Amino acid sequence: MFGTRIPRYRTRSGMFDDMVIAQIKRLSQAWPNYVRPVQFAVEDVPPSAPAPWEERARPCSHAFPGSHGMAPRVVLYRLPLQTAARDRVELQYAIRDELVDCIAQLYGRRPDEIDPDWGR
């Protein structure tokens, strides 16, 4: 009924994916050596039981360091981020902050070193 270019065609999950892709592109321009090797994924919700070695549960994202030939991975959880955000702009900032925090965690850096606007 609607074409793919008509705004009604975009679902909330599709718009979320677009926001994630835009932030990854922005970060990869500034830090290509940090972002290029990382695999990114979006899941609807986090697993119900965190792994025993995890110090704290992160309901919005998770960074998995690379090991045994596997690339490092960052997973964002869509529903917790969308639920916490009041509007589209706040959601964009939340996605940015989660991505920056996870990338910084993977490389042992402070988030404000990756993006000076982190947390603002």
Describe the structure in brief:
The chain has 120 residues and is an alpha+beta fold.
Describe what this molecule looks like in 3D.
The chain has 120 residues and is of the alpha+beta class. The chain is built from five helices and three strands. It has a three-stranded mixed β-sheet with strand order 1-3-2. β2 (61-64) and β3 form a beta hairpin. α1 crosses α4 (88-107). The mean pLDDT is 86.
Q: What structural class should be given to the helix and strand makeup?
A: alpha+beta
> What is CATH's topology name?
Zincin-like
Helix and strand element order: HHEEEHHH
- Strand content is 5-15%
Number of domains: 1
Beta strand count: 3
What would you call the shape? globular
Give the C-alpha Rg: 15 Å
Q: Any guess at the CATH architecture? A: 2-Layer Sandwich
- Overall mean pLDDT: 86
Characteristics of this structure?
alpha+beta; 45% helix; 120 residues; 3-stranded mixed β-sheet; Zincin-like; 3 strands
SSE inventory with pairings:
Elements: H1 12-30, H2 32-35, E1 39-43, E2 61-64, E3 73-77, H3 78-84, H4 88-107, H5 111-114
Parallel strand pairs: 1-3
Antiparallel strand pairs: 2-3
Helix pairs in contact: 1-4
